[in-house]
Specification:
Radius of gyration: 19 Å
Helix content: under 10%
Number of helices: 1
Largest sheet: 5 strands, antiparallel
Distance between the termini: 46 Å
Structural class: mainly beta
Amino acid sequence: MFLAGLLSGASVVALAQEVLPDGQTITPTAAPGAVFRPLNPGLADYPDFTAGQAVTSAISPDGTTLLVLTSGYNRNYGADGKVIPQDSNEYVFVLDIAKGSPVQQQVIQVPNTYSGIAFSPDGMQFYVSGGKDDSVHTYSQTGNNWAETGTPIALGHGPGNGLPLGSSAVLPAAAGLAITRRQDHCRRKL
């Protein structure tokens, strides 16, 4: 994780450059001191499974918790070639970063996601976009664990861009999201 290098005080400015054959230069893929760790959700049926597509992250307002969201194709198949639903999800990896080096605290399974994760301004909740489910999941902390509160918020979007419904239609998907401190910003006027 690139962030681990930043948390350990590694300098991002002093990165060495590599010159490519065409004369262009690139910097390394990680800052000095960065640590890459596999994202293992701890599946009972697939203990060595590593989740892919870590697409975004969020740091809690107090700077002690890092959330890493996967969004892609983390599917496992049985001998019959069918998806095993309980072992085929996306994930929120909850890491404690209070002491610098990230320590995995919890893994939360989410059926569908698409690159949206954000903490509430007070850090007491976080939200995850539901991707093709066109919804937003809300999580609250109880003790040392996070749990989904209620059912996902259905956004109710219709098909986009005036495309016809059918197998080739572009369907709505909840993607990136952000939170504002203004409490009246999203209230509907009745």
